[in-house]
């Protein structure tokens, strides 16, 4: 896979929100990775460096009450949040270590969920990348485990609320166990899944999808009528009205 060199984009005077820039591997390269992982899975192998936690304890997690208030009562299925019959779908490309992803998650996203997802108008999908570094990779693998238990949105929101300094090694098995427990997951099963080769597939697939849409920063979004086709959404992350305008245009 080609090298990935993240950097922070300075805010421009044109109102563009700050995002985390990425250099994506080519789709061909990603396809090779996906094929290799499929081979590993079929042979029962694993190349995951994250140990599977079996403890029901783990790190003390912050923001549990706020996260539950935002997500309780909304259907989740894998990486999807909301009614499968919703007219509009928004796909978010994120990296769990991206500070701007966190900013969007704790400011603009709750408004959109309350206004559009909870009311059945919009379904959201997560495509978690892992370009910032090793802690992103471990976090993404934990997200795959959460997706398998239909808890990826809870896990992701809690991860942001407990986000640490990039690549300091803070994404330990104890940290992940704490997130799993706070998200209401089976901690042991999640740890086992995260330690499997299967947990690597979603990030590789997300990278391929990002290349398809020309995504070069996080968070980034594509939007369209559910089932597609989808188009890249150019909007300021802190501009709830910009998101609403794009959604409302499709709801007409």
From TrEMBL:
Entry keywords, A to Z: Disulfide bond, Membrane, Oxidoreductase, Redox-active center, Signal, Transmembrane, Transmembrane helix
Record-given protein name: Unannotated protein
GO MF: oxidoreductase activity
Thioredoxin-like fold domain: residues covered: 77-224
Family from the record: Belongs to the thioredoxin family. DsbA subfamily.
Bilayer-spanning residue ranges: 21-41
